[in-house]
Design goal:
The protein is α/β, with parallel strands linked by helices. The protein has a 7-stranded mixed beta sheet with strand order 17-16-15-18-19-21-20, sandwiched between helices. Strands 9-8-7-10-11-12 form a 6-stranded mixed beta sheet, with helices on one face. A 5-stranded mixed barrel has the order 2-3-4-6-5. The N terminus is likely disordered. The chain is flat and about 65 Å long. Pfam families: TRAM, tRNA_U5-meth_tr. It comes from Biformimicrobium ophioploci. This is 23S rRNA (Uracil(1939)-C(5))-methyltransferase RlmD. Keywords: 4Fe-4S, Iron, Iron-sulfur, Metal-binding, Methyltransferase, S-adenosyl-L-methionine, Transferase.
Length: about 475
């Protein structure tokens, strides 16, 4: 007889409406064999003829599942126990908060299978989009550290009872109080317990959130200050800085404000210098707390190096770096002697990129603030472009890609953080005369379901009619 294997339960999930308003939930748990993994890492099985999603269930396992939401075409459930032998790929999650925290989805799956699943997700999206990829185009995944890779994280602060900092629970707006987070940089992870002790004594509602950040040389804790602090609160924060290895800083202002004023715990204005190194650059790439930077510095360095190796920008070429941010790709391309034009929506990031170029001694790159979803944005740029690098947000770059077909740059390198929008945009490029020469996934976010990818296209004029 099979012995049930208990699985720690997660918070109660939401029900599917009022009683009698839809399909009724079974009164007892049901047995669900798991066949495959979904795009979000949940196990997929079938019960009563419907697709059934089960968190932390792996293919080959059978789970006793309490259904918590039933809809016309699918249902969702929580595993009460695994009633089969565990899958060979199952591992014990090291994080004590994994069952409740919504930050990670794959700690129960070994790293090799995580990576294989992410690569398969990209293949599946490309196939569904009708964007065929030659077998020879696939390159090995870029990989790095499994743990301790994350260089920044934002923790919300709860003020019911004693204040504490935490991440959102799974499928909830409630917070999980975190005492450790193994995907954080070790120095940031070690500081969590000390931060929680200090927050417990701070006046409620004085602080809004805590931003933990590690650059190449130092660790920071930036606290959003919502109202004046008591002297004893400031003293506790100053002590936290002395004992934790963190530079503890305050940013006065309401939540959502983009103010850049930063002070130390005593209220003195400070301007911390943040930066990270990239190969081929003479100085660090500088940034401020509100700037977007990649949270995995190790993979970011590998990613930039791979982009340069694939695209091989020549000194005689003119390149566009679209969604350029603070110059993460622009500066390394310019260091090869190319003329590079970086385009970014946010003016303050454009200015940061300009200052970074000056610090590197690069006078062959320029930066423009523009909304790239507008058809007029590219009209401000040179008509003759040799190469384009795209690093758009999760929504992808449909409008940009359609407009780029008019410029027909010979080389196009696309860095994506969403396989679905990458597949959609790749189909447009393939239909507009481009060939996908090289393609790979990047394991930027181990233990989570986020998938980063990179594709290198060249214009051949042989695409399918659009």
């Amino acid at each position: 007889m099979r012995r049930p294997r208990p699985i720690p339960q997660k918070p109660k999930a939401r029900q599917s409406g009022r009683a009698g308003s839809g399909p009724r939930l079974p009164s007892a748990p049901v047995e669900v064999p798991i066949e495959r993994l979904a795009h979000d890492g949940r196990g997929i099985g079938y019960w009563d003829g419907k697709v059934t999603f089960v968190e932390q269930a792996l293919p080959g396992e059978t789970h006793l599942v309490r259904l918590v939401e039933v809809r016309s075409r699918f249902q969702e459930g929580i595993s009460e126990a695994c009633v089969s032998d565990p899958a060979p790929e199952r591992v014990n999650p090291p994080c004590p908060h994994y069952q409740t925290c919504g930050g990670c989805q794959l700690q129960h799956l070994n790293l090799d299978q995580q990576r294989a699943h992410k690569a398969q997700l990209l293949r599946d999206h490309l196939q569904r989009a009708g964007a065929g990829v030659a077998t020879g185009a696939w390159e090995p995944m870029l990989t790095g550290s499994e743990w301790g890779y994350r260089s920044r994280a934002r923790l919300s602060i709860r003020h019911k009872g004693k204040p504490f900092a935490g991440f959102r629970q799974k499928s909830s707006r409630e917070l999980v109080k975190v005492s450790e987070c193994p995907i954080l940089h070790p120095e940031l992870n070690r500081s969590l317990s000390a931060i929680q002790q200090v927050l417990a004594g701070i006046e409620p509602r004085a602080l809004g959130h805590a931003e933990l950040l590690r650059d190449d040389s130092a660790s920071f804790c930036l606290l959003r200050q919502l109202k004046p602090l008591r002297p004893r609160d400031r003293a506790q924060l100053a002590e936290l800085g002395r004992t934790s290895g963190l530079q503890v800083l305050l940013q006065p202002g309401k939540e959502g404000e983009a103010g850049t004023t930063v002070t130390d715990p005593d209220g003195n204005a400070v301007a911390p210098l943040l930066g990270y190194r990239l190969a081929g650059l003479d100085a660090p790439v500088s940034f401020q707390f509100q700037d977007f930077t990649q949270i995995n510095p190790e993979i970011n360095r590998l990613m930039v190096a791979q982009a340069l190796a694939w695209a091989s920008p020549a000194a005689s070429e003119t390149w566009l770096d679209l969604f350029c941010g603070i110059g993460n790709f622009t500066l390394p391309i310019a260091s090869l002697g190319c003329r590079v034009i970086g385009v970014e929506l946010l003016p303050y990031m454009v200015e940061r990129a300009r200052q970074n170029a000056i610090a590197q001694g690069l006078d062959n790159c320029e930066f423009v603030a523009a909304d790239l979803t507008s058809a007029t944005a590219l009209k401000r740029l040179p008509a003759e472009i040799d190469g384009v690098l795209l690093d758009p947000p999760r929504a992808g770059a449909r409008e940009v890609v359609e407009n780029l077909l008019k410029l027909r740059p010979k080389k196009l390198l696309y860095v994506s953080c969403d396989p679905a929008t990458f597949a959609r945009d790749a189909k447009i490029l393939l239909g507009g005369g481009y060939e996908l020469i090289r393609l790979s996934t990047l394991d930027m976010f181990p233990q989570t379901m986020h998938v980063e990818s990179m594709g290198y296209f060249e214009y051949s004029g042989l695409g399918k009619p659009r």
